[in-house]
Specification:
This protein has about 180 residues and is α+β, with helices and mostly antiparallel strands. The chain is built from 5 helices and 6 strands, in the order H-H-E-H-E-H-E-E-H-E-E. The protein starts with about 25 loop residues before the first helix and ends in a 9-residue tail after the last strand.
């Protein structure tokens, strides 16, 4: 339903950089009667490189291994983020569907819940597959000098970062805390 928070499969492209068996029947069927062969007559592997902005972003995300981040907010803002994504603006939050210049994120769902509760709210969103270049250390609650250090603080301290650039709705989904069993 339009406007509802939906779970989206967020897997990045799976790339296999392992060795290729050029003697397998599948490879030979694909390779066919090509004249591109090495000095032994076996298929010669050749590569073509091209620049792709999308692939650059995917490679950047994989290389930096960005963890899942969390954002504490209201149900209404969670719905808007899931429908429209985040669009930072240099205007008042009222003119930007309640969004500010930055979207504040944390490495801890409990920390995100605390931030939501501070505002009288109780909704936590997971934010996945964020390009590293769109983050900066949270100017208010961050304690490290780099984003990478902030994302991997020791002693289970929550890291706090700010999203500075637009992020599509496919990156957001509702976080459900695991249920604690009581006897």
């Amino acid at each position: 339903m339009k406007g509802e928070i939906q779970t989206v499969n967020m897997h990045l492209y799976e790339l296999d950089y392992g060795p290729i068996d050029t003697n397998s029947p599948e490879f030979k069927a694909w390779f066919g009667n090509s004249i591109v062969k090495n000095e032994n007559g076996s298929p010669k592997m050749v590569y073509h490189g091209t620049w792709s902005r999308k692939l650059s972003k995917i490679t950047e995300e994989i290389a930096k291994n960005i963890p899942i981040l969390y954002h504490g907010t209201s149900k209404e803002n969670a719905r808007k983020l899931s429908k429209y994504g985040f669009q930072p603006r240099k205007i008042s939050p009222e003119e930007n569907q309640g969004q500010s210049k930055y979207l504040y994120l944390t490495t801890s769902p409990e920390n995100a819940e605390w931030f939501a509760n501070e505002k009288g709210e109780n909704t936590v969103l997971e934010v996945r597959n964020i390009p590293y270049s769109t983050l900066k250390v949270d100017p208010e609650d961050g304690i490290s000098d780099t984003v990478e250090k902030e994302l991997y603080l020791p002693y289970d301290l929550p890291g706090n970062v700010a999203l500075t650039r637009p992020l599509g709705p496919e990156h957001f989904r509702l976080f459900h805390f695991p249920k604690v069993r009581t006897r």
